[in-house]
């Protein structure tokens, strides 16, 4: 009889059983994140039919127009994670300050950061968007509210990270440090089923992914490093949703670059809830993630919404970019 694929929850429970001291709280937390992504997927896929298209009529702490789906996705994650009893603090792209929670005594050991809806500018034109999340163990004293000190941690301290991409199918990709695994939503079951076991990033890939429309704003070293991929041997693929560009790079290899430029000296992408979770995944999958010079996983955020230049890709492709940026002639 053909084995049906594992569900996300079965996979999480199997990996938690490898930690004898585990209390099951981590499974409850990951289940909550999976549920939130399924709820968001349902709304994203009906956005054109419901009343969730368009702008919410306010700007967020980033100074960006907030889409109705940004708010819906943020509210869904806040409600589901709060109900789980597993978290003491939440940090979100859509929240100026963290949400500090009185965690359940035995289970509230985690702090979660997230970009509830990544690629918002693409929602109204039916292009793939996604959710990005990272899970830290709390650092503040075990009783009482969590706080910003539980969130401002480097990606090397993540206990889990992942994303959901809402595209031609909904795929949930995560790692707890035991490899990177992908689950595809079976809408008829409402289950996320294992579809991409132990994802590995090819060291070198056929694509480069960068918004070359900004070339004139780039510093000289960035222009030189990007041109290293423009010798005709690569195709340019740029969706404009980080999750979509990262997912393709994770599976097919190549390189994604969001560099600094004159108008954005620290780049556009946020360290804590965009770059860090993806960097954790790429390193877990044998790839690399840097800001062009330093590993993303080593960068400690000073503020919740710090930005960073971001380079994601296969080990050889990222090394090629970094050496060109450093001025190596080769
Ligand atoms: P968000 O929708 O969460 O604000 O993220 C948008 C980001 C990211 O998804 C993407 O890589 C980048 O914006 C694209 O920026 P440009 O349009 O400047 O290329
Ligand atoms: Mn984003
Ligand atoms: Mn977003």
Question: If you had to describe this structure to a student in words, what would you say it looks like?
Answer:
- The chain is 28% helix and 24% strand.
- It is built from seven helices and 15 strands.
- The strands form three sheets. It has an eight-stranded mixed sheet with strand order 4-3-5-6-7-8-9-10, with helices on both faces. A five-stranded mixed sheet has the order 12-11-13-15-14, sandwiched between helices. It has a two-stranded antiparallel ribbon with strand order 1-2.
- The structure holds 2,5-anhydro-1,6-di-O-phosphono-D-glucitol and manganese (II) ion (2 copies).
- The site of one manganese (II) ion has 6 residues, from strand 5.
Give unreliable regions as ranges: none
* Structural classification: alpha+beta
Q: Main β-sheet: number of strands, strand sense, barrel status?
A: 8 strands, mixed
Q: Provide the β-strand percentage band.
A: 15-25%
Q: Which whole number gives the mean pLDDT? A: 93
Number of domains: 2
CATH H-tier superfamily of the largest domain: Fructose-1,6-Bisphosphatase, subunit A, domain 1
By DSSP (H or I, 4+ residues per run), the number of helices equals 7
Rounded to the nearest angstrom, the radius of gyration is 19 Å
- Distinct compounds present: 2,5-anhydro-1,6-di-O-phosphono-D-glucitol, manganese (II) ion
- CATH topology label of the largest domain: Fructose-1,6-Bisphosphatase, Chain A, domain 1
Tell me the series of helices and strands, N- to C-terminal. Answer: HHEEHEEEEEEEEEHEHEHEEH
Helix content: 25-40%
Total strand segments: 15
Strand order of the largest sheet: 4-3-5-6-7-8-9-10
Shape: globular
Distance between the termini: 55 Å
The CATH architecture of the largest domain can be given as 2-Layer Sandwich
CATH class of the largest domain: Alpha Beta
């Amino acid at each position: 009889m053909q084995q049906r694929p594992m569900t996300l929850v079965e996979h999480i429970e199997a990996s938690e059983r490898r930690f004898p001291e585990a209390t099951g709280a981590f499974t409850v937390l990951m289940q909550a994140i999976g549920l939130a992504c399924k709820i968001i997927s349902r709304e994203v896929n009906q956005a054109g039919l419901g009343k969730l298209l368009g702008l919410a009529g306010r700007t967020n702490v980033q100074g960006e127009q907030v889409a109705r789906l940004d708010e819906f996705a943020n509210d869904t994650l806040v409600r589901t994670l709060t109900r789980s009893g597993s978290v003491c603090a939440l940090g979100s792209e859509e929240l100026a300050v963290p949400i500090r929670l009185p965690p359940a005594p035995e289970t509230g050991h985690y702090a979660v950061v997230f970009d509830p809806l990544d690629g918002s500018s693409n929602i109204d034109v039916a292009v793939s968007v996604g959710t990005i999340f990272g899970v830290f163990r709390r650092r503040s004293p075990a009783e009482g509210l969590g706080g910003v000190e539980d969130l401002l941690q480097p990606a090397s301290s993540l206990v889990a990270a992942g994303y959901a991409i809402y595209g031609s199918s909904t795929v949930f990709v995560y790692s707890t440090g035991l490899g990177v695994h992908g689950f595809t939503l079976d809408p008829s079951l409402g289950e996320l089923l294992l579809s991409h076991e132990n994802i590995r990033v090819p060291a070198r890939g056929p694509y480069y992914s960068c918004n070359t429309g900004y070339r004139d704003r780039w510093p000289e070293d960035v222009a030189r490093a990007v041109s290293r991929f423009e010798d005709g041997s690569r195709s340019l693929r740029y969706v404009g949703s980080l999750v979509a560009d990262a997912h393709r790079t994770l599976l097919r290899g190549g390189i994604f670059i969001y560099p600094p430029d004159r108008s954005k000296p620290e780049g556009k992408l946020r360290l804590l809830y965009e770059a860090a979770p993806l960097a954790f995944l790429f390193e877990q999958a044998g790839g690399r993630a840097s800001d062009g010079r330093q590993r993303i996983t080593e960068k400690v955020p000073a503020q919740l919404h710090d930005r960073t230049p971001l380079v994601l890709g296969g080990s050889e492709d990222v090394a090629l970019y970094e050496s060109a940026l450093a001025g190596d002639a080769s």
